[in-house]
Amino acid sequence: MNQLELWERYKTHLCRCEPVGLSLDISRMGFTAGFLEAMADPMQRAFSAMEALESGAIANPDEGRMVGHYWLRAPELAPTPDIRAAIETTISDIKAFASDVRSGKIAPAPGQQFEDILVIGIGGSVLGPQFVNDALGTPRQGRTRIFFCDNTDPDGIDRGVLDRIGDRLDRTLTIVTSKSGRTPETRNAMLEVMQAYARRNQCFSEHAVAISQEGGELDRLCRAQKWIRLFPIWDWVGGRTSQMSAVGLLPAALQGFDVDGLLGGAREMDRITRSRVVRSNPAALLALMWYHAGDGRGSRDMVILPYKDRLVLLSRYLQQLIMESLGKETDLDGNVVHQGITVYGNKGSTDQHAYIQQLREGVHNFFVTFVEVLRDREGPSVRVEPHTTSGDYLFGFLTGTQQALHEKGRESMTITIDEVNARTVGALIALFERAVGLYASMININAYHQPGVQAGKTAARRVLDLQLRLIKELGTHRGRARTAGQLAASIHAPSDIETVYKILEHLSANPDRKITRTPGTTPFDATYTAE
Amino acid sequence: MNQLELWERYKTHLCRCEPVGLSLDISRMGFTAGFLEAMADPMQRAFSAMEALESGAIANPDEGRMVGHYWLRAPELAPTPDIRAAIETTISDIKAFASDVRSGKIAPAPGQQFEDILVIGIGGSVLGPQFVNDALGTPRQGRTRIFFCDNTDPDGIDRGVLDRIGDRLDRTLTIVTSKSGRTPETRNAMLEVMQAYARRNQCFSEHAVAISQEGGELDRLCRAQKWIRLFPIWDWVGGRTSQMSAVGLLPAALQGFDVDGLLGGAREMDRITRSRVVRSNPAALLALMWYHAGDGRGSRDMVILPYKDRLVLLSRYLQQLIMESLGKETDLDGNVVHQGITVYGNKGSTDQHAYIQQLREGVHNFFVTFVEVLRDREGPSVRVEPHTTSGDYLFGFLTGTQQALHEKGRESMTITIDEVNARTVGALIALFERAVGLYASMININAYHQPGVQAGKTAARRVLDLQLRLIKELGTHRGRARTAGQLAASIHAPSDIETVYKILEHLSANPDRKITRTPGTTPFDATYTAE
Fold it and tell me: Largest CB tally within 10 Å, which of A72, A409, B225, B267?
């Protein structure tokens, strides 16, 4: 295809969504008109499934749940008046609460003000807030800072959060987010942070807000300890689609982001992507291109390349949204399908100096989704050459890379947004949420559960139970040096010797556990002794 | 295989490197003894190629260059006394310079001290320093802060760097790193930062240090403007293997990291991985496992999962090291091979809440490299349950996830380090550098060039040249409204209409360019006018 033919293809397929300032260009994907025709029926069935979902069907059959994240920005579509009222009340409560915190009406102590925000959560409880914070935040000296505690790594909690916050912890509002209320990583981090407040003689409850489902452990704790506030989340909102619930809106509102813009952008994108006219529905086009690129079975990785530093976390956000939704062993009929689409990426043009070499020349196992932002910055730009700005270079590298990949038969799409603001970010989130839903229907899987994550948690529980038995056994015979093999036998777990060995290596590397390791002739002959 | 058989396999294959406190466990990779035998000859040839490289052969034939990053931590192995002297002098110069900066002997103004560091660079010039800074740094209030400017994104420079530094810019030491001295992203960011110093009436030269090759543009600029200092980099060090040159050592030394530990860990790992005895050579084992997992053609992605927040940038560092080195179209004999290995990942257990669902149940297109750190934190840990710490949970989730993936036939390796310190970080870098070199030999490609990145840059240059012609044309007829098609014709580039259209959309979205867009009946009928 020559340049003018490509231009015709570009014009034919460009999907412009004026109300949200977003376009999708699929002209550099190698699909044919025949492909779109062949997919017309599955696509229409996917629209029907989405309509059923939006009107309150049990779209997550395994867990017997409705899937309601689209109602969060259009409460009038909720299937019951109670749900509608719950959404509307929560949004207005969040705005009022954030306003009171920002005005100092809600404060850590008389005459003080909350200066920093700490969000404790993991997975869907923080990936959205992290992405939105990075996309919309402009850290300046003296401004509200936001921190995320998203793991159960002790050193990560110390140096990633507590060391950075330092003595401002006294004026830090801590949000603990856990849908179920019993996520161990979140609970552990909360306990560590509680202790940090205590070390500073600060009352944790007077600094804490919870976001959780009613009736869960966190809900009970929050009520019992009289935390400042509790915001609800509901069983019909999945963690990975919870950005427009309190999970995402509360941190956004506390930072002064345009919450109505976020909701409005998502709502408008929802409206646009409900259309059954595929060529003007960017979510349908995305889903179709994913299907085309990976033969409907994820045979190509999705590389997410925003040319804008603010959007560097988009790929991490989409990793969860897409991989956890689509990476499934069985389809809705119980057939083993091993579905999914792998997602990775950081940002351009930085990544051109990292892995574009492989994308252009190497293993052909991917397609690229570029994200372009037309507006370079607030205010004027210095000219780095006559009539040329840094932003022109960024634009040039994006366009040049699109062309260089196309020359080599590597497929790409481009999403262009006018600028990064609350409205376009809301629209981007809604766009991908719906593309995931439509694609899941096309490949006949449940996008709204995650049955595969339980096995790792259960195995972890077994490891921790084994550790308890070991610690007890070691403590019963203080001063006695035994090998991993001997200890495994002592606790009647001889076949668990490998796990026992690993537990002992971990415990003895941490001096506060007071378990001494004495090297042996091989690593496996080392002995361990409780002091 | 039952648990005891797995334990035997674990013991048989565990590669423990005592001097650097690192182990590699390959027992959960599904290779057979037959595979290791079959690979014995290619492996020995790879060792020979590595020996030739280390003794100064032209290991990068396309560019006619030696490949000398191993000499950086063992200068006595350099092929000439001049190279040895250059390495040794540079290391001691860096230490002396960092000491002078940290003591205030080298200062922005009398009585002041450099408080912050800004590194401007992209790709190999910053990925190493970013990784090492995050692995070894412990930001505390009041400490030296480090910032990275790694793109030509105007907004990214403003809010990612300049807004954060604020008025501390006066006391910020800026390091400009560009091997060639003409990387446009780096040059643009430097010009933007120069202007920021000027806006504060600060002399840039009195705050600036360069790292560049002799005789290049940056070298000339630095000398002409009398910057504080220039540190060399040499043509026999590739960007992606430059962490042990001034590129990595200068930022490390300025932050007070243990430079000798970094160098010593790498040096020791080099010594260990020169061994031709495969089972005690972790670099050879890694390379073999990559070959096994991806059939020697990168058919499976490499997921990097460190269970330690400090190591979250390891995957991004390895993305460049591995994908840019291995992602090649042709082999050394000129055959088209489309090689490479895709690398992605963030950190555990956080990623268990993102994409482990897909890894366990979904498309089977990957193998995992876990990284375990035995030491949890400095100081004692609060117990989150009886006898149980947050670190135990982290360990439990790692072990549980290894088991859960193994149950489903998903392969994984585990690198265990005693703790994250300069020595283990140096060892990790050296381990992967050599694994890449050995694997490249096994698949017969040049790991030390990047011919595929030029196309995107050349295409970008064409875009910027086209833009210049457009701006000139628009300026010649101010006030005249024309469509993209008309303007493309006016500058005699009718077949470039798509690029012209995109340039105009970008320019007109930025008010300081003073090009007005007037909508038409379709997006392509919009007209553009220079004010």
Answer: A72
